[in-house]
Amino acid sequence: MHISTDPGIETRPGTLVLDVVVPVLNEVHTIGACVERLQRHLADTFPYPYRITIADNGSTDGTGRVAAELVRRHTGVVRLVQLAEKGRGRALKAVWSTSDAMVVAYMDADLSTDLGALWPLVAPLMSGHSDLAIGTRLHRASRVVRGTSREFISRCYNAGLSVALGAGFTDAQCGFKAIRADVAAQLLPLVGDNAWFFDTELLVLAERSGLRIHEVPVDWYDDPDSRVDVVGTALDDIRGVLRVRRSLRRGALPVDEIRARIGRTMPSAQTGGQVIRFAAVGALTTVLHLGGFAVLQVLGIMTAQIANIVALAAATVINTALNRSWTFNVVSRRGTLWHQVQGLAILGLTWLLTAGALAVLGAVWPGAPTAVQTVTVGVGTIAATVVKFFVMRRWRRVDGVEPPERAEASEPADANGIPASCGAPTGR
């Protein structure tokens, strides 16, 4: 049965629209059925020129022999690229960077993701609406069958990305992604990981470059024969997160240049992740404040009141610096001193609010019990903390890295109806 999926665009004869890459490593028992099923699905549902690329990166079990037979059976539609070194990221970089297709995609060889999501994945890229597209298993509309432990690990990992890198996408590791070729040409040279962290690093760079990431809820079925080393991969991912964060803080990744060159805007900050990071910084600096006060008291070099002010001021300076660089991702040195002044001013505001609240309480209820006084001080502190959060959040906008919109409108199409920047890349 043929399903009509015409989105209203026309391609020039011979233009390769989609290149689907299937990375394989010792998949001799699954690659045949996978490619045959994928080929049938594309033939029935995708009305534009496409290709399936088997990226064999270091197989030793006969996968290459089966792949070669598939190439012979589907001449002109299936091709085989063999790499000597292992690594899913390495395979994708090698194939994507040399593909002549308008849109490049990949999916895992086990086809855990239902192929019905393939057209919704690539259509926004073909129309020019989005720059990347990912399948997500964590959307409420997704239907996922997998073990509790893997579900827990996946959700913790993606929540960690939101906290550590301010990521706004929901599922970094789902093996079902697509990207426009012109965008891939800009981002792939910057991706340092050649293994499983490749996906995450690519998405973080895209988001920091102001690119639009389209998410597709998927039906996903866990492969019981998965050979992924969960612990080893998790450790590699943690190292990758730290490396990318250091690079972003140092300005070593030219995301601003890419954003200006492609003509996109910075995505809006993720308030949930900011609140979590803000609270973590607050807890840490509270411990530093109390510890500093205790040390100064033990040394006996100043009175308790002075020790408290000194320790609190030092903790406030550290709090401002951490919130500036970590919570709100302000990497420019511009305005650093002014931000510290604002942090100390908010400290003064906290004192004024709490002292003023106690004064009002004393006038209204002279004999107020300690519990009521404590609640009053707490309310004043909370009010000052809320003010502090929104003042610091504004630093991103002042720093010029958070325009009001996530992405610009879709770009105009050429005479053939294809988005202007979505043609086959040149110089390949």
UniProtKB/TrEMBL annotation:
The chain crosses the membrane at residues 275-296, 302-322, 343-365, 371-391. One of its GO terms (cellular component) is membrane. Its EC number is 2.4.1.117. Residues 20-186 form the Glycosyltransferase 2-like domain. It is a single-pass membrane protein; Multi-pass membrane protein. Pathway: Protein modification; protein glycosylation. Residues 401-428 are annotated as: Disordered. It catalyses: a di-trans,poly-cis-dolichyl phosphate + UDP-alpha-D-glucose = a di-trans,poly-cis-dolichyl beta-D-glucosyl phosphate + UDP. GO terms for molecular function: dolichyl-phosphate beta-glucosyltransferase activity. PANTHER family: DOLICHYL-PHOSPHATE BETA-GLUCOSYLTRANSFERASE (PTHR10859:SF91), GLYCOSYL TRANSFERASE (PTHR10859). This is dolichyl-phosphate beta-glucosyltransferase. It comes from Dietzia timorensis.
